[in-house]
Design brief:
The structure holds 2 protein chains of 2 kinds. By secondary structure, chain A is an all-beta fold. Chain A is 0% helix and 53% strand. Chain A has no helices and 11 strands. Chain A has strands at 5-7, 10-13, 19-24, 31-38, 42-50, 53-57, 64-68, 74-78, 87-94, 104-105, 109-113. In chain A, the strands form 2 sheets. In chain A, strands 2, 4, 5, 6, 9, 10 and 11 form a 7-stranded mixed sheet that branches. A 4-stranded antiparallel sheet of chain A has the order 1-3-8-7, with no helix packed on it. Chain B has no helices and 11 strands. The relative contact order of chain B is 0.36. The chains are: A mainly beta, B mainly beta. Chains A and B meet through strand 5 and strand 10 of A and strand 4, strand 5 and strand 10 of B.
């Protein structure tokens, strides 16, 4: 069974640009969550999508947004990129969401802002 | 105060040692607790997933949860160099909140 797939693996952008990251969950999983990982702040929850609806949201500015498609694939968008957005962005999927199901992670997209 | 506190280490032990990794949490809404292992340049890999207070064992790994003191632990028996990684504890109750991670190095 294929795991969570994230594309691209690496990305370099400049300040002010926008970026879209993609996540394909494990087959059959309907919940997709996004996280930001940095050395200083660790792993921080961005948001969760279930059946194309955002169900939970972390404490990030509105520049961070996402969506989920009918096939459960998800995209995350960051607009007006800042140097502090440099991080590893991780996607995790689960069968039914953050209530009572374990999250399985992809290997992430490493975003570098110049 | 962070909802999940974890000593970042680094922790270095000889091969074969018993490793004890610990976290405390403050959010009483957490119902589930997890331990993840993360190798360099990889995503976190789920090791243990527990609900109730008590112990859960899987091979060389034992997860322990004490809800009365809000304390969770992971024990690794007969540690191997391949166990060298960052270990993350997490609590789940609507959102998944992680500790900072403990960097473990097992020396041959």
């Amino acid at each position: 069974k294929a795991g969570v797939t994230q594309t691209p693996r690496y990305l370099i952008k400049t300040r002010g640009q926008q970026v879209t990251l993609s996540c394909s969950p494990i087959s059959g999983h309907r919940s997709v969550s996004w996280y930001q990982q940095t050395p200083g702040q660790g792993l921080q929850f961005l948001f969760e999508y279930f059946s194309e609806t955002q169900r939970n949201k972390g404490n990030f500015p509105g520049r961070f947004s996402g969506r989920q498609f009918s096939n459960s694939r998800s995209e995350m968008n960051v607009s007006t990129l800042e140097l502090g957005d440099s991080a590893l962005y991780l996607c995790a999927s689960s069968l039914a969401g953050l209530g009572n199901q374990p999250q399985h992670f992809g290997d992430g997209t490493r975003l570098s802002i110049l | 105060q962070k909802e999940v506190e974890q000593d970042p280490g680094p922790l270095s032990v000889p091969e074969g040692a018993i490793v004890s990794l610990n976290c405390t949490y403050s959010n009483s809404a957490f119902q589930y607790f997890m331990w993840y292992r993360q190798y360099s340049r990889k995503g976190p890999e789920l090791l243990m997933y527990t609900y109730s207070s008590g112990n859960k064992e899987d091979g060389r790994f034992t997860a322990q949860v004490d809800k009365s003191s809000k304390y969770i632990s992971l024990f690794i028996r007969d540690s191997q160099p391949s166990d060298s990684a960052t270990y993350l504890c997490a609590g789940q109750g609507g959102k998944l909140i992680f500790g900072q991670g403990t960097e473990l190095s097992v020396k041959p």
